[in-house]
Amino acid sequence: MKDHMHKNSPMKLNAANLDAFPETILRPRYDRAALRAGMVHIGVGNFHRGHQAWYLHRLMQQGLAHDWAIIGAGVRATDATMRDKLLAQDCLTTLIELSTNSSGAEIIGSMIDFLPVEDGNAALIAQLAQADIRIVSLTVTEGGYFIHPATKGFDAAHPDIVHDAANPTTPRTAFGAIVAALKLRKEMGLGAFTALSCDNLVSNGDILRQTVVSLAHLSDPALADWIDNTCSFPNSMVDCIVPATGQNELALAKGFGVDDAAPVTHEDFRQWVIEDHFCAGRPDWDKVGAQFTNDVHAFEAMKIRILNGGHQVISVPAQVLGIDTISGCMEHDLLGPLFLKIAHEEIAPHVDAVPDMTPSAYVKLIQRRCANPMIVDTTRRVAFDGSSRHPGFVLPSIRDGLAAGTSIDGLALIEAAWARMCAGTRGDGAVIAPNDPFWADLNVIALRAKDDPAAWLSMTHIYGDLAENARFVAAFKTALRRIWAEGMSAAIQNYLSR
């Protein structure tokens, strides 16, 4: 591997040490002490720091957007852990780009503070009500938007939503904090801000609008109308493979001479496509590679169907086969071909081209990105929360295939593989640890489906009317019976031989 590893003992990452790091490490050229906040980001995980925070940092490197610095925030206990790590290093992050034959490190400084994570979210509400905050962005996972599993509308009965509706000044959720802050802004005549979802959801801006406006309506209908009429909720598509941080990533940072408690590794690819609909201004992210467009949906469909759907295609059977990494899947003599066959034959035909990219070319791009052996992205991480990911990433391609009369056998096999995975054991008998917010329920149904495959499809909050489609049901039942009788490898081989 060609790189620039540092021989001496690593130094703690903080503002005081910035100038002392090896010259091979890129670092902020701007005066961080002079930055002013313009954004609050809720949900400061690895993806945000490797994606949105990087775009802003690159703008700042050009002498731009110095009044758009990010203040981090969170509403979950795990956010407090990240806050402690980042505040101890002045909110600096080491980004390590890993391509197939090289690596490089860059320290980014676009975040300048991280709010206390606390019951009632008083600090978050107060910050969001400040006039200089013009964008509030979120990465709270696909399953975090309080979407009713059956209706796909707003889930007003969720206990956290019921709490926030009854206690609007001391909310539990990020959305409750947004509503409370917007109420203060309205009362003070400060105007609205843009709420920007950076999660992998089709129409993520529309869904964020639905959640915020619907929640506001439960306690203050007039406020809800004001939010709906004055706030912006741009749809966006985000893309960069950013693994979780473990001992390997901590060691990589130290190899560059940086003792970073929360470094981020990422692939050598990023994409951010955003509707240009910002009610209170925005940074010029397009100057550093983001794309502003009026048609996010075509980009979004291509990425969610082929990358996110393709991730499920390989990670779910991999969990049963005991293959731990995404790159390992692409090297595997069955899973690599399985991805290509399903992507080319069952997903790409239902995806429109976007400027400069056909669906088949995008499949090849995803194949290359997933095969990068330097990115240690685990199949466990990618297969997590199937109860949110399958309805969003996989089932739409099945519906399109059924409507068009084209093959859905491979995707039916993946749904059967998910049912097999949720039974909680690998093919060799090893235990698969719980890997879904609803794992206990899924596990009971998966074990029942071993003898009665229809039991799995009875989850109408996931499958809806697909459970009544004779062609899909037959393909699913055949696949699940074969997986249990002959094993995952034999079932995949059977599909590949067609």
UniProtKB/TrEMBL annotation:
Residues 295-484 form the Mannitol dehydrogenase C-terminal domain. Residues 39-287 form the Mannitol dehydrogenase N-terminal domain. It comes from the Bacteria. PANTHER family: MANNITOL DEHYDROGENASE 2-RELATED (PTHR43362:SF1), MANNITOL DEHYDROGENASE DSF1-RELATED (PTHR43362). SUPFAM superfamilies: 6-phosphogluconate dehydrogenase C-terminal domain-like, NAD(P)-binding Rossmann-fold domains. Keywords: Oxidoreductase. One of its GO terms (molecular function) is oxidoreductase activity, acting on the CH-OH group of donors, NAD or NADP as acceptor. InterPro entries: 6-PGluconate_DH-like_C_sf, 6PGD_dom2, Mannitol_DH, Mannitol_DH/Oxidoreductase, Mannitol_DH_C, Mannitol_DH_N, NAD(P)-bd_dom_sf. Pfam families: Mannitol_dh, Mannitol_dh_C. This is Mannitol dehydrogenase.
